Here is the input.
Amino acid sequence: QIQEGDSAYERGLFHLERGRLAVTEEDTPQALRNLKAAKRYFEQDGRTLEHAWSQLWLSSAAYQSGDMDTARAELQDVLEFPDQEHFIQTILPQVQQTKIWLSSMQEDPVIGATLSDFMEQVAKRESRLPATRRSLRRIVSVVPMSAPRLSILALGRAQVKINGETIAPSDWKTQSVRDLFFYFLTASQAMSKEQIGLVFWPDIDPAKLKMRFKNNLYRLRRALGPEVIVFEDDRYAFNHGLDYDYDVETFDAHLAQAKVSSDSQEQIDHYQAAIDLMRGSYLSDVHMTWVWPERERLNQVYISVLVKLSRLYLNNMEPEKARKTCQRALEHDSCLEEAHRLLMKVYAMLEDRSAIARQYQICKKTLREELDLPPAEETEELYRQLIA
Here is the structure.
């Protein structure tokens, strides 16, 4: 059950979810009341992205009620949102859910042409990133919402849940069945069984490959359901049309939202939510080469986010949070000079000269032992400034 919170942001999310449900149930008067309230609360709290969500749904509700003036006005603001490329990525779930009304409004003589261009950009985004950013649950965790049928965790040890129940190793029968599922999930396009065989069973003959693949696919579908893998034109793919949640996609969605936000607290919220998803390296218990590129990408992005978040905390006068986040970055890369420099700035804010000196010495010693290099001139200059 949805519960209304105390802050303007929580109240906005509460009314947005109520309004969204009312639109889908064709309770237009209730939808208009809730969505106007959501818009007001988001505007009050300076939440530009969520404000745009409420306008998109409000436009749909107004269209549903026959109020085309309001429908046009609200939608026009959405269509004029700056940085459309990143905006479309973050608003994609809302567009997908309101598409039935947006498609009808493409015939409107006033905004139809602009809306059609927008929907064309959306279609291109969907084709490149199929079914990304799965619904509101990925971005509005403050408001309780129904859990996805399929919950997939890859940021750490591999784990899959169906309706909240973890799939046990015995359900997979073998680890290769589980790994095959994650391979389907991360593949950028549908694959033939021969392509899959080259990755999983490169040394067996074609006849045995056919039977091995058939058995593994049968076990996979038995564990997760027959609809989880689709077959079309002799190729297999994960069914992105399922009701699912995938922590890697959620991680990337938070980063995309932080990137388009101009509000430092909103950026902090999204970066913190992203790093909180990290339980370890990507698929840390999968020992196959196809995992390496995505594992490296996520490791590098994770470290970068920790540095950005540390800097935001420092600028926000929250030195203790900045310190902990910097330490977390250094746990992953002890030679990351930027994190060492940020820590020195943290200690300067805390007026702890001995800690500044200690951190500089740690940085210097680590670089010498690990890389046989001295600190960068930027690090040396910062140390001289802070210790003077």
Summary: Confidence is low (pLDDT under 50) at residues 129-133. Residues 292-315 form the longest helix (24 residues).
